[in-house]
Amino acid sequence: MKVHQLKGYIQQIYIVEYPDKLLLLDGASRADVGTILRFITDDLQRHLSDLKIIVVTHMHPDHAGAAHRLRAITGAKIVSAAKEHDWYSGFDGFLMHVTDLILARYMAKRLGQPSKNLWYKKALNADYHLHDGDIVPLFADWQVLETPGHTDRDISVYNAAESVVYVADLMVEVKKQLIAPFPIFHPNQYRQSIEKVYQLNAKQILLAHRGAVVFDAGAKRHLLETAPMRPVTHWRVTKIKLKGLVKSVLAVR
Fold first, then answer.
1. CA–CA distance, 185 with 195 (Å, rounded to integer)
2. Is the separation of the CB atoms in 63 and 151 below 8 Å?
3. Which of 49, 166, 189, 208 is the right S-S partner for 148, CB 3.0 to 4.6 Å?
4. Residue 241 lies in a domain
5. How far is CA 119 from CA 65, 66, 111, 124, 143, in A?
6. Range of the domain at 189
């Protein structure tokens, strides 16, 4: 087994290579489809049909955006968390989907990336819906861990034999410190997820927006000390800004 790390449009891409198959550890963004396909055919010298499983850790644009298109091209199957409803369901879900796409474009601009089409379906049609501890189909050395908090359905992918775990957006690195991502919908669950990953004592913690990091006791302590105690979401941030705007207008009057 070999884990390849590619520079994606706004995040890192991880492809796990075996002699007879390939595993994509997250669904990437729509802008990454060509990057992934070229890496398989040109760098690995493999058939596109060797890509067997695409994991979607959660529904944000840089983690689910390429999944459907890659499946249509390669025939790979999609794995996601087992949830009864879609993350972007209803009118609020539609607004959140649009907002997340805008945030993705903003991040791309900050990274100096050219503007690209990031649109993808807001409802994921997965082939396998897995629970905590379930084995990834066709890849018996990898298992799914439920690590919610960032959203209600975040999953990580863990290989105990190689002591490596991909945690997607469970944590991000800013100024050489690990911190919680934005948004955090479920603070209590988030803290439990951090503890779960820490207890793995994995040699490699792979992040979507950094690469491999050291997650020792000091890093965990700082992360939990700085993580929000209440939900920090799109709507809450908007309400806070609106309240500030109203106060400013009233103060002027």
1. 17
2. no
3. 189
4. no
5. 7, 10, 19, 13, 29
6. 2-226
**Is residue 8 a contact partner of residue 62, using CB atoms and an 8 Å limit?**
yes
DSSP assignment of 68-124: HHHHHHH-PEEEEE--SS-TT-HHHHHHHHHHHHHHHHHHHHHTTPPP------SS-
- Per-residue pLDDT 10s for the chain (253 aa) are 999 999 999 999 999 999 999 999 999 999 999 999 999 999 999 999 999 999 999 999 999 999 999 999 999 999 999 999 999 999 989 989 999 999 999 999 999 999 999 999 999 999 999 999 999 999 999 999 999 999 999 999 999 999 999 999 999 999 999 999 999 999 999 999 999 999 999 999 999 999 999 999 999 999 999 999 999 987 665 544 444 444 444 444 4
Q: Is 127 helix (H, G, I), strand (E, B) or coil?
A: coil
Quote the number of domains for the chain: 1
Q: Determine contact, residues 64/58, Cβ cutoff 8 Å.
A: yes
How far apart are alpha carbons 245 and 100 in whole angstroms?
23
155 falls within a domain: yes
- Summary count for the chain: helices (H), strands (E): 7, 14
Q: Provide the whole-model pTM.
A: 0.93
Instruction: Tell me the backbone φ, ψ of residue 232, rounded to 5 degrees.
Output: -120, 100
Closest CA relative to residue 73, chosen from 34, 26, 120: 34
Residue 105 lies in a domain: yes
Q: What would the two tokens of residue 70 be?
A: 């890659």
* Domain CATH for 101: 3.60.15.10
